[in-house]
Design brief:
The structure holds 2 protein chains of 2 kinds.
Chain A: H1 5-20, E1 29-30, E2 37-41, E3 49-53, H2 66-79, H3 87-91, H4 94-107, E4 111-115, H5 118-129, E5 135-139, H6 144-151, E6 156-160, H7 165-174, E7 181-186, H8 198-207, E8 211-215, H9 230-233, E9 242-246, E10 257-261, H10 263-272, H11 274-277, H12 284-299, H13 302-321, E11 332-338, H14 340-352, E12 355-356, E13 358-360, E14 370-375, H15 382-398, H16 406-413
Parallel strand pairs in A: 3-12, 5-6, 5-7, 7-8, 8-9
Antiparallel strand pairs in A: 1-2, 2-3, 4-10, 9-10, 11-14, 13-14
Helix pairs in contact in A: 2-12, 4-12, 5-6, 5-10, 7-8, 13-15
Chain B: H1 3-16, H2 42-52, H3 70-81
Helix pairs in contact in B: 1-3
The chains are: A alpha/beta, B mainly alpha.
Chain lengths: ~425, ~80
């Protein structure tokens, strides 16, 4: 037996350390489809509790939409369950290419390639396109999957302070000797909910002869007037060289992702991106349902409009109640609590009130920046949000934080 | 304060602190373990040191521990200057 007792003990100790640091992640079992209301078993073995979900990435409320579910059934019936192959051997069906074409049209790019997830898209794209002599210059708050992708690539890398255009410009000047400069950013940043300054980034890219990469996972389907994403929101449609995004959030919420952008970049991914070459093709069920999602949101902006209204109502309600939130326009609304324990205590109390939210603290967010991240959905109706606001006010009052800013909260609860 | 420490400290402040940061950083302040510098953005510091002091720091030596304070970083630079 190679799994010796000393190995078991060492691994057990690591888990214990995670637990004693208060960082152990526990799964909560949900017994219903993803929606505004969900039935949750937590802790394990407890009776089911019906709660309003304010922490899903189900921005457009399409995860359990009847037409999407029906399209998934159609995909299962007409193309089967699995393909037992990677894409380039015998795993590409007509519907895979159809979805790629629809995404290209929706995102306003030249071509698209599907990946099993956006994590895989981000892990594969840099290595496929860049080499030694190039440089990747990334915002310091980009998603972990981009950090992993950068680490797998042989090109040099550098970073700039979050959304600091002066700092980015200095870095671009510094790297003028490189063959390719690629500026890398999230479209909407997942923890703060702020939008990248893509108009300024594209202007800098032009000035310093750089390409632009945007991960629009928290934006595709709803940011911008017709929901195309942050490039539409910032008025730079057609100027982003590489967009990666997910089908696991607003666009149906199951799984899958893509690289969409310049034709040659997409083709290089088809030839060289390892997660594309060595991971199974997306199952027909998901391809079929995701295609329906693109059809649904191409025809009407109703759902993104409702999400926008919900976001406005929620942001205004929290501010009026006296909460300190990160200002912005996206449906990611962080309620700032700064103190890690306070974020955990409040999330627990809100759950008891029937509101499902999660508290985030270091190392997921910087030290002293603990928060409860709330996320809106087009599946929420006004009554859900009113009920959630009432619960937030009640718990905010309990801890005496309404009307307090960072300094006052830290004085009261410590760092 | 030695000139090298002063130069590195100034670089750390310019490169990693935000304008609204009210944090005091000195030569002994933990940089990595406190979260001021994360292991991902540490690379710009390494590049700066290599250019400024005309040295090569092997990746194996550029550990989060070795970069955890201005004092430790200066010691690492001196070690490589003497090689």
């Amino acid at each position: 037996m190679a799994y010796a007792a000393k190995v078991r003990d060492a691994l057990r100790e690591e888990i214990d350390n995670i637990e004693s640091a208060g960082l152990l992640k526990e799964e909560r079992y949900i017994h219903s489809p993803q929606d505004a209301w969900i039935d949750v078993e937590f802790p394990a073995g407890s009776p089911l509790k019906k709660v309003i979900n304010l922490c899903a990435n189900n921005y457009l409320g399409l995860s359990s939409h009847p037409e999407v579910v029906s399209a998934a059934h159609d995909g299962l019936e007409s193309r089967g369950y699995g393909m037992s192959s990677v894409r380039f051997i015998c795993g590409t069906q007509d519907i895979h290419r159809e979805l790629e074409n629809k995404l290209t049209e929706y995102l306003g790019t030249e071509d698209t390639i599907l990946f099993p997830s956006c994590m895989d898209a981000n892990a594969g794209v840099f290595e496929a396109v860049l080499s030694e002599g190039d440089v990747m210059i990334a915002d310091r708050l980009v998603h972990a999957s981009i950090v992993d992708g950068i680490r797998l690539c042989k090109a040099a890398y550098d970073s700039y302070k979050h959304s600091d255009m002066g700092h980015l410009e200095r870095k671009l000047e510094e790297h003028q000797d490189k063959r390719i400069r690629l500026i890398i950013t999230d479209g909407v940043f997942s923890m703060d909910g702020d939008v990248a300054k893509l108009d300024e980034i594209c202007a800098l890219a032009e000035k310093y002869d750089a390409m632009v990469f945007v991960d629009d996972s928290h934006a595709s389907g709803f940011m911008g007037k017709t929901g195309r994403g942050t490039h539409e929101h910032c008025g730079v449609l057609g100027k982003i060289d590489i967009i990666t995004t997910t089908l696991g959030k607003a666009l149906g919420g199951a799984s899958g992702g893509c690289v969409s952008g310049r034709k040659e970049i997409v083709e290089l991914c088809r030839q060289k991106a390892r997660p594309y070459l060595f991971s199974n093709t997306m199952p027909p069920v998901i391809v079929s349902a995701a295609t329906k999602v693109i059809d649904l949101i191409s025809g009407t902006t109703e759902r993104r409009d409702k999400l926008e209204e919900n976001t406005k109502f929620w942001r205004e309600g929290l501010v009026e109640a006296g909460f300190d939130i990160k200002a912005g326009e996206s449906p990611i609304v962080p309620v700032m609590l700064y103190n890690a324990k306070l974020s955990q205590d409040m999330a627990r109390d809100l759950y008891a009130e029937g509101i499902y939210v999660i508290g985030f603290f270091f190392p997921v967010v910087p030290k002293g920046q603990a928060r409860i991240r709330t996320q809106l959905s087009a599946a929420h109706d006004r009554e859900h949000l009113e009920q959630a606001l009432a619960a937030f006010k009640k718990i905010g009052e309990k801890y005496g934080i309404l009307g307090l800013g960072k300094k006052e909260i830290l004085e009261k609860f410590g760092n | 304060m030695a000139e090298m420490e002063e130069t590195i400290l100034q670089y750390v402040k310019d490169e990693y602190l935000e304008e609204d940061d009210d944090m005091e950083v000195d030569n002994d302040t933990p940089l990595i373990s406190s979260g001021i510098v994360d292991s991902f953005s540490m690379v710009s510091l390494k590049t700066f040191l290599e250019k400024k002091y005309k040295i090569q720091i092997p990746d194996a030596k550029a550990t989060p521990e070795a970069f955890d304070s201005v004092h430790k970083i200066a010691a690492l630079v001196r070690e490589h200057q003497n090689q």
